[in-house]
Each structure stands twice: as structure tokens, then as C-alpha cells.
Amino acid sequence: MLAVDVKNIKKTFTSKQDTVEAVKDVSFQVEQGEIFGLLGPNGAGKSTTILMLTTLLSITDGSASILGIDVETQDKEVREKIGVALQDTGIDKILTGRELFFTTCRLWGYSKVDSEKRTKELLELVGLTEAGDRRVKTYSGGMKRRLDLGLSLVHSPEILFLDEPTTGLDPGSRRVLWEEIKRLRDSGVTIILTTQYLEEADELADRIAIIDEGLVVAEGTSDELKASIGGDVITLSFYSDEDLEKAKNILTDAVQSKDELRITVADGASKIPEYINKLISEGIEVSTVSASKPTLDDVFLEVTGNRLEGTEKAAEEKPTTTRKRRGR
Questions:
Q1: Are 32 and 190 spatial neighbours (Cβ–Cβ below 8 Å)?
Q2: What is the mean pLDDT of the chain?
Q3: From CA 214, how far away is CA 212, in angstroms rounded?
Q4: How many CB atoms are located within 10 Å of the residue 310 CB?
Q5: How far is C-alpha 310 from the geometric centre of its chain's CA atoms?
Q6: Residue 323: what pLDDT?
Q7: Which DSSP helix (H) or strand (E) runs through 191?
Q8: Beta-carbon neighbour count of residue 271 at 10 Å?
Q9: Which residues, 6+ apart, have CB-to-CB distance to 103 below 8 Å?
Q10: Is residue 263 classed as helix, strand or coil in its secondary structure?
Q11: All domains of the chain, ordered by start, with CATH?
Q12: Could you say which DSSP state residue 315 is in?
């Protein structure tokens, strides 16, 4: 049985002034026990998709099921199977971490004895035992995100939805949370997470769906997505915008990314001299050139025509060839 089965779901918001298609057509399937990543920029429809799957928003069209349970018609049963940690969850900052866990356990129907036991387990799980008796308002950003993660696990859900779980965290806190997420996956929890960080998707997700403008534009494992580009990526930069524009007209197979041109070819290192000589013959000087294996950044650029802004780039291999020329 699939953990999550999404078929052509759509979400349209209508007002007197306008109609907005937040999610135009999204389909994917998630196997039990895997981490599935929804990768895309802000406004792509990732969070709206999560809200529909967790019964917090109605589905305009299409269908979705959680462990075979229909999201729209059996919403109560769905909520018993899932845990949810959203971006802007309102956590009571006056209570201590221990009090929050205990109270949430009681709300889920645990007895006082079982609530105390479960509270201790969860504090240990998310590494907050020592801070358990401190008020939440004294917690760092990373500690609050781990607390939020722990609260979503109170009722031992089979499927966990995480909406951009590490946004705003420093690199160290992000790594700690990554390890928590991996441990949960290894314990059998299915995890669906949204992210705008290429590195995060690469590190955590067993499979990835790239969402752009409310549509799934690519899906597969990280390696499959990178392999879909084929070959190597040659990156060229120039001394002036004028040279960049001229080069773009000459190298018609190149894609512009900010102030660079990127070309995907087989055996990139061997092709570099050909491109350099062609540009030099037209009076265009190249400031730097390199050839590297494709990254998720390259995949995103290839399938959307844009780079994913405001994100950490996926770890890249060192360039196989680099050449610099002096400015004029």
C-alpha cells in the first residue's frame, strides 16, 4: 500500500477581485518508509499542497489518499495517521518544553502516567532533555524547530509532513535537524518534506519532485534527476554584460544564469577549447570557464529556466578544468 497517493490535485483561490491557481496540477506517489521531497521556490505551491494533504485546506479538484484513506471524505481518519510540522506553528512560549509535551499528550488521550512517559521519550528523541524545564521563549530557533518536530510525533504517526523544517536555521542547527529526520525515517516513519534548499533535498530525500508554478516539472531520485541532464555542465563568465550578450548569440545552446552562460555537453573538458576559440575569434574574452558534473541546481535551471533563489547550492564537484584570461 502506498503511503501517499496524489492524483492531479488542484487548488484555486477565488475572490471578488481575482482567481489564483496556487496548485495547477500535482501528482506523485510516496512509498512507505521513504523521505519524499517537494523542492521549489517560494510561491511554487509546495505549502499549499501540504495543507491539502493534511486536511487543512480543501482540494479544488483531483484526489489524494493517505495509506488508502481518502483525504477529502475521511479527514478524521487521515489526521489520526499523520503528524504535521508547519512553517508558522503557534507554539505557546510561556510553557516549558516538558509542559508542552505533557499537555499535547493529554490532548491526544494519553493517561497522566503515559503522558509523563511519552514526554520523557520525546524530549530525549529531539535532544531537549536538558532544556525541558526551560520556558520555550528562551529556546533558540533550532531548539524550537526540534520542539515542533517532537510535538508532531506525540501520537506516533505513520506519516510525517514537514513544511520547510529548517528555514531560518544556521548550518549547525540544520544538520542536527537533518539527523533527527533521518533517524525517524530509519525507524519506519514516512516523511514528506517541502524545501527550497537544494542541499537539503540532496541530503535527505530518497526521491524528489520539483514543483514550479503549481506544477510538478520533474521527479526522481537525486541521481536520476542529475543523470537526466546528461554529460557535464560548462560554465562561462565574462568581463562585461556586452560580452555576455554577444556570447549568448554565438553559443545558441547555452542557458543564461545570472551573469554566466551554462552549456550541457558530453565530456565537457574536451569541449572547452572549442568554445573558447569560437568566442575569441569574435573578439569576446572569457573571464573564467569550468566543467563540472550536473547538480540539482543544474536540474532546476534545466526544467524551469530559472535558478532556485535564496537557497544553498547543492555540493558540487570541483571543476575539472578552469581557465582565466586577463581583462583588457
A1: yes
A2: 88
A3: 5
A4: 9
A5: 12
A6: 37
A7: strand 190-195
A8: 17
A9: 95
A10: strand
A11: 4-220 (3.40.50.300), 231-324 (3.30.70)
A12: P
Amino acid making up residue 198: L
Residue bearing cell 509523563: 116
Q: List strands edge to edge, sheet with 69-70.
A: 69-70, 61-66, 4-14, 19-30, 215-220, 207-212, 35-39, 190-195, 159-163, 82-85
Pairing mode, if any, of strands 190-195 and 35-39? parallel
Q: Where are the alpha helices (DSSP H) in 30-170?
A: 46-53, 75-81, 97-107, 112-125, 141-151
Q: Within 10 A of 63 (CB to CB), how many other CB atoms are there? A: 15
Tell which phi-psi region holds residue 303, choosing left (phi > 0), alpha (psi between -120 and 50) or beta. Answer: alpha
> 15-28, pLDDT tens digit by residue?
888 899 999 999 99
Return the bridge partners of 10, or none. 61
Distance CA 298, CA 222 (A): 12
Q: Which of 98-102, 160-164, 179-183, 302-306 has the lowest mean pLDDT?
A: 302-306
Cell representation of residue 252:
545558441
Q: Contact, 138 vs 91, CB < 8 A?
A: no
Cβ neighbours of residue 250 closer than 8 Å, sequence gap 6 or more = 278, 279, 282, 284
H/E stretch holding 185:
helix 171-186
* Cell (9 digits) for 324: 582565466
